[in-house]
Design brief:
This protein has 94 residues and is mainly alpha-helical. The chain has helices spanning 2-42, 48-93. α1 (2-42) packs antiparallel against α2 (48-93). It is elongated.
Length: 94
């Protein structure tokens, strides 16, 4: 029982570190997009509609890869949880 509690505490600490890293990445990408938009808006010789197209395309890149990462993360978490349940049920049968 004691080992289970220690693993849970370790899991909580890892989850807190993940949350901090997740927010850092989110804020970094947001700042990167804002800087990119400012640079694009300052450029001369590019029409306004082309500037909007460039900004939307650049945002789409982050949205695509972010969505793929999120889907893989959710799928991996669910697979890990089901595998743990399978192991626990297999140990219970023996």
């Amino acid at each position: 029982m004691r080992l289970c509690n220690l693993n849970y505490v370790k899991y909580l600490k890892e989850a807190e570190l993940y949350d901090e890293k997740k927010w850092f990445v989110f804020i970094f990408i947001t700042i990167l997009l804002i800087v990119f938009y400012c640079i694009i808006s300052i450029l001369k010789g590019i029409e306004y509609t082309d500037k909007i197209t460039i900004c939307i395309s650049f945002t789409g890149l982050f949205a695509t890869f972010g969505g793929a990462y999120l889907g893989a993360k959710i799928s991996g978490d669910n697979a890990r949880k089901k595998y743990g349940d399978t192991i626990k049920s297999a140990k219970g049968r023996k």
